[in-house]
Design goal:
Radius of gyration: 17 Å
Largest sheet: 6 strands, mixed
Family: Belongs to the ABC transporter superfamily.
CATH architecture: 3-Layer(aba) Sandwich
Number of domains: 1
Order of helices and strands: EEEHEEHEHHHHEHEHEEHH
InterPro entries: AAA+_ATPase (IPR003593), ABC_branched_ATPase_LivF/BraG (IPR030660), ABC_transporter-like_ATP-bd (IPR003439), ABC_transporter-like_CS (IPR017871), BCAA_Transport_ATP-bd_LivF (IPR052156), P-loop_NTPase (IPR027417)
Keywords: Amino-acid transport, ATP-binding, Nucleotide-binding, Transport
Number of strands: 10
Bound molecules: adenosine-5'-triphosphate
GO biological process, one term: L-amino acid transport
Strand order of the largest sheet: 6-7-8-3-9-10
Protein name: ABC transporter ATP-binding protein
Number of helices: 10
């Protein structure tokens, strides 16, 4: 479904990604683990067209999207939930959800049905629907960011650090929603600092170190890998 080949990204003269290759098959959850600064966020943002690529190709559902603009990539079926959420803090919860559907060509009635579905997944967002998004708690903002991404009816979600800064209860809720999305057929590329959690929920994983993929395998294989255990799983 997604094929990233020889991705090279620079920030001025900092070579942040050095030939990254990643594939994601339809229906999979694939995770990317690595230390701070390894290039995880850069990988997601260059796939979604936010950061320009110096070299390499990105193919999504057979189509070359290497040079496609971010808003067109969203329209093509990829949604990103960025680190730090980036919701519209000055708008209500409901308006944030509505904005998530800006690329969807469908009747208002069907878009309203999508909003109802988001409220079923995240009942707290219904309770808070008229509240300014900036006044939500961190966990609620994460739910809103995911809800907003789902509103674009993505086939692939790029999810950046969904557990960051959240209490265990919220983390559990967010990861339950990730599992439900997978069951519904959404494919997910997940970046997560908490490698234990990421490997427990994903099918396959890549380990990124200073801009390079140094290891890949099924999540079960990586969970049992000695060097992964030592470096990332606190063993
Ligand atoms: P973290 O888990 O800390 O968010 P990460 O694996 O997501 O880390 P990136 O944010 O992708 O890492 O950063 C990769 C490298 O690129 C780092 O060395 C970082 O300092 C650098 N970098 C990221 N964004 C910029 C930028 N806007 N300008 C310059 N350098 C950047």
């Amino acid at each position: 479904m997604l094929e990233v080949t020889n991705l090279n990204v620079y920030y001025d003269n900092i070579h942040a990604l050095k030939g990254v290759n990643i594939t994601v098959d339809e229906g999979e959850i694939v995770c990317l683990i690595g230390a701070n600064g390894a290039g995880k966020t850069t990988t997601l943002q260059s796939i979604s067209g936010i950061i320009p690529k110096r070299e390499g190709t990105v193919i999504f559902e057979g189509k070359d999207i290497t040079k496609t603009k971010a808003n067109v990539i969203t329209k093509n079926g990829i949604a990103q939930v960025p680190e730090g959420r980036r919701i519209f803090t000055g708008l209500s919860v409901l308006d944030n959800l509505k904005l998530g559907a800006f690329t969807v060509r469908d009747s208002q009635e069907n878009i309203n049905k999508d909003i109802e579905k988001i409220y079923e997944r995240f009942p707290i967002l219904l309770e808070r629907k008229d509240q300014l998004a900036g006044t939500l708690s961190g966990g609620e903002q994460q739910m809103l960011a995911m809800g907003r991404a789902i509103m674009s009816r993505p086939r692939l979600i790029l999810l950046d650090e969904p557990s960051m800064g959240l209490s265990p209860l919220f983390v559990e809720k967010i990861f339950d929603v990730i599992k439900t999305l997978k069951k519904e057929g959404v494919t997910i590329l997940l970046v997560e600092q908490n490698a234990n959690l990421a490997l427990s929920i994903s099918d396959r994983a890549y380990v990124l170190e200073t801009g390079k993929i140094v290891k890949e395998g099924t999540s079960i294989e990586l969970m049992e890998d000695k060097s992964v255990k030592e470096a990332y799983l606190g063993a």
